[in-house]
Design a protein that fits this description.
With 245 residues, the protein is an alpha/beta fold. It folds into 2 domains: 2-77 and 154-244, P-loop containing nucleotide triphosphate hydrolases (Rossmann fold); 84-152, no CATH class. Helix content is 36%, strand content 26%. It has 10 helices and 10 strands. The chain has helices at 40-48, 70-76, 93-99, 107-120, 122-126, 137-149, 167-181, 194-200, 218-222, 225-231; strands at 2-11, 14-24, 29-33, 53-60, 63-64, 78-81, 155-159, 186-191, 203-208, 211-217. Strands 6-7-8-3-9-10 form a 6-stranded mixed beta sheet, with helices on both faces. It has a 4-stranded antiparallel beta sheet with strand order 2-1-4-5, covered by helices on one side. Helix 3 packs parallel to helix 6 (137-149). The longest helix is centred in the C-terminal third of the chain and has 15 residues, at 167-181. The mean pLDDT is 90.
Length: 245
């Protein structure tokens, strides 16, 4: 579905990504892992069209989209949920959700997608007429993921969905990401929570200094000595809930 070839990108003259090659199959869950400042968010912005490539190309569904504007990529089915968890505080939960469907005209499908968002995140249905500025951090994360779903994505890109959330909320969020994937949406998750992301994903890429340093089957990466030493120290909560949603 998504093919990235020799992606080189950055800001001004600063080159952050230095020759990224990635391939994501339709219907899969893929994670991109790494520490702060390694280029994860820059890669998502490049795929979304928010920053131009210095070199390389991006193809989606067999079509070269390297030169397309961000809104054109959204119409093709590429939707990004940013790390900032930005909701419009003076608008209700449902008004925020409906903003995600601004490029769509299919009213019946929009209503069906809204019902599905409320099925995945029942608390949003309970809060649908409540101003989003009154929501907790976990509820805002649910809201921005739901808003991304309202765009009707073929591929949903999630930037640090677990950031600044309590462990129980993180489990709920990852469980719902798994449920979304089961509807046929391709998922690309950028994360620093390596263990959680690898449990969720089928395939993983690990980036360092703008270069993919390791990739492979997610479950095998969990047991890889280099991954264990660099990323998997310490204890974590029981993550079995993720795959049973």
């Amino acid at each position: 579905m998504l093919q990235i070839n020799n992606m080189q990108a950055g800001y001004g003259n600063l080159r952050i990504l230095r020759g990224i090659n990635m391939e994501i199959s339709a219907g899969s869950i893929v994670t991109l892992l790494g520490g702060n400042g390694t280029g994860k968010s820059t890669l998502l912005k490049a795929v979304s069209g928010l920053i131009p490539l210095m070199e390389g190309s991006i193809s989606f569904d067999g079509v070269d989209i390297t030169g397309l504007k961000p809104h054109e990529r959204v119409r093709r089915g590429i939707v990004q949920v940013t790390q900032a968890k930005e909701a419009y505080p003076a608008m209700t939960v449902e008004e925020n959700l409906m903003l995600g469907a601004y490029t769509r005209k299919d009213r019946g499908a929009i209503k069906a997608d809204l019902d599905q968002v409320y099925e995945f995140f029942p608390v949003l249905r309970e809060r649908r007429v409540q101003l989003s500025g009154t929501l907790s951090g976990g509820e805002v994360q649910m809201l921005v993921i739901g808003r991304g779903m309202m765009a009707g994505p073929k591929m949903l890109m999630l930037d640090e969905p677990s950031a600044a959330l309590a462990p129980k909320v993180v489990l709920d969020i990852f469980g719902n990401i798994n449920r979304i994937a089961k509807t046929g949406v391709t998922i690309l998750v950028v994360e620093q929570n390596v263990r959680m992301a690898l449990i969720l994903a089928e395939y993983g890429y690990i980036i360092r200094d703008g270069v993919i340093m390791l990739q492979g089957d997610a479950k095998k990466l969990i047991s890889d000595p280099a991954v264990k030493e660099s990323f998997l120290g310490g204890s974590v909560a029981d993550t079995s809930k993720i795959l049973h949603n």
